[in-house]
Each structure stands twice: as structure tokens, then as C-alpha cells.
Write a structure and sequence with these properties.
Blueprint: H1 4-20, H2 25-36, H3 45-54, H4 59-83, H5 85-95, H6 99-120, H7 127-136, H8 141-176, H9 178-200
Helix pairs in contact: 1-3, 2-4, 3-4, 3-8, 4-5, 4-7, 4-8, 6-7, 6-8, 6-9
Length: 202
């Protein structure tokens, strides 16, 4: 039982190694990052990390692809909020049951939009919530783009750098603690949800 985590990670890595050499790998990473910033629920970090571990020499390239996809996806989220909130944006917010969080984020935008978006790039709180809200609140488009590049770029490049410089050691650590890391990732998502919910209820 104690090797279950390592086995799961090994299977995931083996599958990725077969897939990462195809012409579809990098576009798929871009697509996941793009979609997550506007409507998709799963963060691109997991795919980025596994792909970078499969080919550490391409870690920075994958991080840049992830950043580009996320920033451009954030632009789509902005357009959804700005032009199509009632038809598209609101159903997305309701689907993820994020109305209270959306109201709180909108309030934060009126205080400091750049800081709100920049901080959002490092949290487990759904980034799509911030990008759609930015459009609804008519935040300057340049503010969204610059803050997204700073926050998402730093986040993904840090992950890429960690794997590029400490690839084998990071791989060993993930293999050993895969189950714990998976649980920790879910806990972070839940804590992020609870945190922003508690703030929004104040």
C-alpha cells in the first residue's frame, strides 16, 4: 500500500512520456491553461509539472507556454465578463457556485485591481473568477494583462525552474509523497474556498 503513490505517479509519467513526444503535447498544455483561466475547472499546473519532469530540458518552454495560455485565457474571461456576463459569465459563476466569492472579488477590484489580480495568480482560488469579474467591473484591460503576466508568469516559471534545476530530486520527492501531495492540493483548494467565503460574508 505504501508504494501506491509512487506507482500512480510512475504510470502517469509513463503515459506522459509516450504522449509528450507527439505534436499534440504543447498545444494541449496551452489549451488547458487557456481554458482554466476562463471556464475550465482543473489548473494546468499538474500537466505542466508532469510534462516538465518527463523532459526537464523543456521545463522553461512548457512554463512559458502555460503562462501564455493562461494570460490569453484570462483575456477571454475578461471579454466574457465585459460583453457576455448575463449569457455566459453568470452561468459559469453559478455552475461553480461562486456568487459570494464573485461579489467579494468585485469589491476588491474597486480597492486595488492590480493587486487583486496579481495575488490571485498565486492562490488556489479559481483564476476564472478574477478574470470574469475584471470584465464585469470594467477594469482596465492593460491592468489585467500586466498583472496576469506578473502573477501567472512567476508561478509557472517558478515551477519550471524547480524542475529544471532539481529535476531528479523533485521527481524522487513527488514519487515518494505523491499521495500526500495530491491530498495537500485538494486541501489547498478547499482552504482557498473557505478563506474567500469567510471574507465575503464579513
Amino acid at each position: 500500500m505504501k508504494d501506491t503513490g509512487a506507482t500512480l505517479f510512475k504510470r502517469l509519467q509513463d503515459w506522459t512520456l509516450q504522449w509528450v513526444g507527439t505534436p499534440y503535447a504543447t498545444p494541449s498544455l496551452f489549451a488547458v491553461a487557456f481554458a482554466e483561466a476562463s471556464f475550465f475547472p482543473i489548473p494546468p499546473d499538474i500537466l505542466l509539472i508532469v510534462m516538465a519532469l518527463a523532459i526537464p530540458s523543456k521545463a522553461f518552454r512548457y512554463a512559458l507556454v502555460c503562462c501564455a495560455g493562461s494570460v490569453l485565457g484570462g483575456c477571454l474571461g475578461y471579454v466574457i465578463g465585459y460583453e457576455m456576463f448575463e449569457r455566459v459569465g453568470k452561468p459559469i459563476i453559478n455552475f461553480y457556485d461562486l456568487q459570494k466569492e464573485f461579489d467579494y472579488v468585485s469589491t476588491q477590484f474597486h480597492e486595488n485591481a492590480f493587486a487583486a489580480i496579481a495575488i490571485a495568480g498565486f492562490t488556489p482560488i479559481p483564476y476564472k473568477l478574477f478574470t470574469i469579474a475584471a470584465g464585469v467591473c470594467k477594469i482596465k484591460f492593460s491592468t489585467l494583462v500586466l498583472a496576469s503576466i506578473l502573477s501567472r508568469g512567476t508561478r509557472f516559471m517558478a515551477e519550471g525552474a524547480l524542475i529544471y534545476f532539481f529535476g531528479e530530486r523533485v521527481k524522487t520527492f513527488i514519487e515518494k509523497y505523491f499521495n500526500m501531495l495530491s491530498i495537500a492540493f485538494v486541501v489547498l483548494l478547499i482552504l482557498g474556498y473557505i478563506l474567500i467565503t469567510s471574507f465575503s460574508s464579513q
